[in-house]
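User: Predict the structure for this protein chain, please.
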Amino acid sequence: MPNHLADETSPYLLQHAGNPVDWYPWGPGARARALATDRPILLSIGYSACHWCHVMERESFEDPAVARVMNETFVNVKVDREERPDVDQVYMRAVQALTGQGGWPLTVFLTPQGEPYYGGTYFPPRPRHGMPSFRQVLEAAGRAYRDRPDDVRRGAAELLGALASAERAGLAPDTTGGDPDEALLAESVRFLERQYDAAHGGFGQAPKFPQPSTLEILLRQHVRTGERRSLEMAVHTLRRMAHGGIRDHLGGGFHRYAVDARWLVPHFEKMLYDNALLARAYLDAFRVTGDVELRDVATDTLDYLLADMRAPQGGFYSARDADSEGEEGRYYVWTSAEVAAALEPDDAGLFMRAYDVTEGGNFEGSNILWLPHALDVVARSQSLDPGALGERLGRARAALLEVRARREAPFRDEKILVSWNGLALRALAEAGGALDRPAYRDAAARGAAFLLKALRPRGHLLHTWKDGVAKIPAFLDDHGALGNALLSLHECTLEPRWLDEARWCCEEILARFWSEEEGVLHDAADDAEALFVRPRDIMDNATPSGNSLAVELLLRAGHLFDDERYRAVARRILGREAPLVRRFPTAFGRLISMVDRWTASPLEVAVVGDPAAPETRALLTAVLSSFHPARTVTGRHPHGDTHGVPLLEDRPQVGGKPTAYVCRNYACRAPATDVGALSAALAEVP
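Assistant: Here is the predicted structure, written as structure tokens:
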């Protein structure tokens, strides 16, 4: 019989609806049950693409004997961390304080009032490697609450006191008083140089995560100073990832991370946010270098999102699982026999040479496709013209993709999250503008319109949508990611609607997330559910923090609308966090980039013309195809109004032609009506 999760919309929660565990969703029902029965709460947090979450479910939550202990001893609560990042954040912090580590699945034991008193991550079904079995943990946690309730409550109170004290320390008054320091960018790059893996790219050793926000720091340093080393580190890392097994060479897109230093063996789940952030990183690197290989990786990744992750309504799904047919990576790996059966003999031999497919395999007897050698090296070894090699490999990839499509596909989590969608829409908008790809612009516009309609039913933004149901008040990162996407969408379309909506996001952030007294932005709104600690995480994790996304939005919008309120909040946050950022630069990539934006010489471009006219589009492409650390782009139809944007005031068309106005470091050039004159103005050294 289904448990209390049967009516939920989260795919992760629905995966557990048939467990013999009497799961409750997070909410008043579970708390009321715990208080009425005086039972502790077992809180289990995970997400649909989490491999070890699935393992723990198979080993423990589907076991009737284990479920019986859970049901008799606890009120059991399941949480999808992607739906409730606030709940995940505060209880993860508690477990880290208790054990010194964290991760998913997260297992936390709470008093009926919700106070944590014990926790951990994955627990095996039988004791191994020094870990107790899950059943032993259940019995010990239940016995502690039953036999020593006063000790449990005292320990929980001490833990909460320590967490509250740490929170107060983080909210200490801002004493910096100064502007963010431009030297922070160079200091961060020096730190990254010490962590850099010169052989394989990336930072540190295994496991390796892509870290697109860190790569942005390197690109910005190169553009600001001309320093070649920063560019080399960024481009080498991007190329090695693109050649590695972390990339899906048949279907496009990237897996979550690599478990080895060479980027060969991935953790096979695919996340919307990874692909959105990486597509933009490759696009920015192309805009800096003009390297078409980097451009092609960006478009390949975005094409994957459009093909596999886009919902019919226009939003984007969250993730693809790592497992299929009961095995991690089964959908993506190949034996040499499978490749030989799918291709003509000559093409099979060539493909296996290029993509390292061998009889013994490079991963548990099978083969992860990757490019250990540059294709020009392969072409020379086979006495082939590089163009002919590329054509033959392209045909082979298409044939293998057709075969792969007949396999059982990994589960797709089809909930739509505003924050992750904002990252994807921004990447599409910026690629659409820089590469003049109408399909990308249209997809971004359609996705933004869907979010603003379906996830804002009663005036405030909601966080998640699935099967027609939108719920959970939106968080800071939802507003920040969406607002930045809307500004980028305005840049590539000149549609005034996106300006108005981006400003709405800014106003929501200041009204509902900003504390003037404390000088901080909180991750949950003032009227959100009260947890024992109000969530606030300024560090980037797999995605940029809500604080860094909000600071970026406020800086961009502050300049565009000449709104000192926005700039003042952004400056205050950058100034107060600078000491911590200096100590741990790899945890604050996006904030460091915003310090660069704050201190860089501004470039302002206003384009006046019919957005549908080819001449207007040519001017926009000329502007958006380059990378500038502090660029503001806006525009309007020649008969449209300014929508409160000072850069658009007194900007007529010249000679009735679409016209671009370029101002650098607060000094304006002559209006340009053709791409040549505009490119010359953009290329001037500040």
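Residues 642 and 648 are 5 Å apart (CA to CA).
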